[in-house]
Amino acid sequence: MIKNKRLIAMLCTLALMMLCVAPALGMPNTVKVEQANGQIIEYSINAAIANAKLLADMNAKLAAAFEAGKKIVGVTSDNKVVDVAAGLSAASYTTYENGVAAGTIAQGTNLVADKVAELVGGEVVYNDPPVTVAVTAISATAAKGVVEVTAAGTNAAALQAAITPASTVVLKTGDVYTVTIANAAYGTTYTLAFGTGFSLASGVSPAVSWTETVGATGNYTITTVTQFSSDFGVTVTNFADAQYFAVYKNGSIIGAVTAITGKVRSLPAMFSDAAALQVKFFSDAAGATQVGTATCANNVLTITLPAAPTGTYSVTTVTQFSSDFGVAVTNLDAATYFAVYKNGSIIGSVTAINGKVRSLPAMFSDASALTIKFFSDAAGTTLVDTATCAGGTLTF
Fold it and tell me: What is the DSSP letter of 276?
């Protein structure tokens, strides 16, 4: 057991130094200390440094924990953990005397706080830790920059305020939120981080990215099944959006929309003239969102991707106190509804693509604060694309 008060003070100073000089793991903002009874007390490092009484309380807990061989960890905002107890054990009395923060600074295992030490009315109190919202799923959608995040017990505004990089958030359904990362680019990996009040569930990866569909190629096969039936199948590369396909002959569908790995079965005569066939690719089983078209010749699919969407917007004065916001888009057939957002909050409601959103003129005065979202449904649950506004032009 440590008797030397000077050594205890040095241990506490060294612990703080270890917490503040661990660049490889990031800067911890909290320290968690195990007590003799197994209870874990959490301290804010900045709060402790700023208040002598809270610092003294933390130092006492650090010294007692080290003497008893208990756990001490520092935790960064993204849950990297500095094993302070191991670092103290690896250091020597000489390093304390010389004021050098030697010892091992290593990744540790996080601890769940039972109490949080805080200063209330000039006295140190131990409160229950705040309830955190667990983010239990993160998945990138097919649309560039659009992510679905699952988190129970929160709302769109709170999630938007907590998430980085800067994003707009709307409720999709239940506990699932649609998160749109501002100015997302193909080929870039974005790591979502969540602020105070949120935690990432174990096993959930915060990294998302999108790959642009370039140079889609494909082949088709026609396989005889019986004298009266044949199967038509396709294989495609560089075409991740194509999850379903359908075969058309002279403009009429043969069979139904089919999974990309499936087969369309019909009479052999239906597939006999390749020049009369057309293959359409979709991202959904209903065939609502077409992502490409192909012609057939010599078992090769010549794939044509849809042209990039373009569009304009207009703001029309109705009265001194109201203006109408409208859009006109091309190459975005799946978008039958739109909504206008200002700094992440919807103005009015989801509106038919040929309709107008009416509000106060000031709501539309700053184009840089506006985001337009396009949907395939009136409820605004299926996002098709997103655009920003500048000079009357929509940029997708």
Answer: G
pTM: 0.37
| Residues in the chain, pLDDT under 70 | 1-28, 77-79, 85-108, 213-214
Q: Which domain holds residue 63?
A: 5-127
**Position of tokens 């790591």?**
191
The answer to whether 28 and 17 have CB atoms below 8 angstroms apart is no
Claim to verify: residue 204 and residue 223 sit in the same structural domain: no
**Total Cβ atoms within 10 A of residue 178:** 23
Which pair of tokens denotes residue 11?
């241990």
SS (H, E, C) 81-123: EEEHHHHHHHCCHHHHHHCCCCCCCCECCCCCCCEEEEEECCE
The pLDDT score that the predictor gives to residue 107 is: 61
Count how many Cα atoms sit within 13 Å of the Cα of residue 108 in the half-sphere of its side chain. Answer: 23
- Bridging pattern class, strands 345-352 and 207-208: unpaired
Peptide bond into 165 cis (omega under 30): yes
256 and 292 both lie in a single domain: yes
Last residue of a domain, one of 189, 208, 227: 208
Query: Cβ(326)–Cβ(314) under 8 Å?
Result: yes
CA 44 to CA 59: how far, in whole Å?
13
Are 143 and 185 within one domain?
yes
CA–CA distance, 131 with 30 (Å, rounded to integer): 16
Place of tokens 């933390």: 58
Domain CATH code at residue 250: 2.60.40
- 102 and 182 part of one domain: no
